[in-house]
Amino acid sequence: MDTCALQLTAERNRRRLVEVVYHGGAGHIGGDLSCLNVMTALYNRVMNVSPEKVKDASRDRFILSKGHCVEALYTVLEQCGFIDAALLNTLGQYGSVLSGHPTIEVNGIEVNSGALGHGLSIGVGMAIAARMKGELWHTYVMMGDGEQGEGSIYEAAMAGGHYHLDNLVAVIDRNHLQISGNTEDVMAIEDIRQRWTAFGWDVKEMNGDEMQSIVETFDSIDYQNGKPHLLISNTTKGKGVSYMENVASWHHGMPNEEQYQQAIAEISERIAHLEQQTNNH
User: Which DSSP letter does residue 253 get?
Assistant: First the structure.
């Protein structure tokens, strides 16, 4: 999928995400919206995954370490055909298999996650397993920036560098806001680049709000350079909904009817514009 198609797909996913969170009555919508672009690119361009080979040994693996943003993952899984719309519409309902964190009961999800700080350790183990078996698939881990306060992340970072896991890609969704405020006020994590470089990682920065930057950054990864890869994805909390952007209370806020309609209108306007651009080309 090219960049223009990815951008349109991300906006369609964004509208669907707002819809299911609103009707489900629960979710972490701010962080969902900030990491959605990267997840859309991963599943539609970067990773070797598909519903047809969900258990294929050669598939790439994805771990959502910031598991509270599972609504974004559910939306992308629906868009790619791993789950259907009828299932996604059960979000928030009693008895639904769709819980508030990833679970392997859902088609396409590799591991149960959401206890913050654990995803990278699992990813390191997967990457080592692929290396030991001589297999060529890659492992991708999406972390939050508030999650960087968890000490286990740095044990995993140290191991990734020690074992030269160039088949491992970690992404930090750097939206600067966690549940209790700005990351630098709660538990400062800068300088991220220097910190991870010191652990032996190949560190790149990208604009996670812009699809072109996402595509170019993933395309630039050298999977044979002997280093694990960290992508610092600079994003906006609540991206794509004007009144949610850069507002900490939307970490897990719920829009009312008027706010919901405004969000859908804003996103739909962008979709119409992108569709017109695509048709003109």
Answer: -
Beta carbons of 139 and 61 less than 8 angstroms apart:
yes
More confident residue, 198 or 26: 198
**Residues 146 and 183: beta-carbon distance below 8 Å:** yes
Q: What pLDDT, in 10s, does the model give residues 172-185?
A: 999 998 888 888 98
User: pLDDT for 9-29, tens place per residue?
Assistant: 999 999 999 999 999 998 999
Residue 10 CB partners (closer than 8 Å, separation 6+): 36, 37, 40, 41, 211
Contacts of 87 (CB under 8 A, 6+ apart): 78, 96, 97, 98
Cα distance between residue 135 and residue 150, in whole Å: 30
How many Å apart are CA 75 and CA 217, to the nearest integer?
23
DSSP 99-144: -SS--TTSTT--S---STT-HHHHHHHHHHHHHHHT----EEEEEE
Residue 75 in contact with residue 102, Cβ under 8 Å?
A: no
